Amino acid sequence: DADVTQTPRNRITKTGKRIMLECSQTKGHDRMYWYRQDPGLGLRLIYYSFDVKDINKGEISDGYSVSRQAQAKFSLSLESAIPNQTALYFCATSDTRQGFYEQYFGPGTRLTVT
Amino acid sequence: KNQVEQSPQSLIILEGKNCTLQCNYTVSPFSNLRWYKQDTGRGPVSLTIMTFSENTKSNGRYTATLDADTKQSSLHITASQLSDSASYICVVSLQTGGFKTIFGAGTRLFVKA
After folding, report:
1. Over the stretch B48-82, which tens digit does the pLDDT of each residue have?
2. 8 Å CB contact between B72 and B24
3. Distance between CA atoms of B39 and B87, rounded to whole angstroms?
4. Which of B1, B3, B23, B101 to mutate to test the interface with A (most CBs of A within 10 A)?
5. Is omega for the bond preceding B29 within 30 degrees of 0, making it cis?
6. A101/B43 Cβ within 8 A
7. Residue A76 Cα distances to A41, B15, B19, B83, B107, angstroms
């Protein structure tokens, strides 16, 4: 089984809808991240969490919210989806004990907002 | 402004040939530089990680170099295989109390038979 899983893998939604992307990990890592990837651009950080009680905004957090339900689960919500949120979304994990910069990515969720 | 620029944007090579991908950065204060491989439709997978004091790191047929003075890194792929076709992403992290990482846009490598 994959160490970092994301659900759903693909999602098509309409403008204005609320959607949630979920991430689970079995690596036992304390740190979790959400990124989005757009064609021709590098991955950009949306939110990150260093532990269950810690949530931090990344460089492009507007229009998004997150929840760290447990050490192993980190979900990303789009409160009211808009077309320019169409992108590939990745969850990642890292471990403070292992020099936390080594990140492990999930397979991604392709989101289309029409 | 903290930036990571990769070149070329895309590259086509024949199977068995070597190639070198470039990464220039203007990130300060520098903490570490990583190279990732991203297959189409998959998440990035780490290849190498280098800190300020390291100037080369190998992972099988992949060798990364770092020149912290000129703020340049390269990823050399030896004896390319069809499975090397992917995007290669350079990532630089800053020394900060929080978390600050800049991703390059990647180089798309196509290996042809």
Report:
1. 999 888 999 999 999 999 999 999 999 999 999 99
2. yes
3. 6
4. B101
5. yes
6. no
7. 21, 40, 38, 32, 28
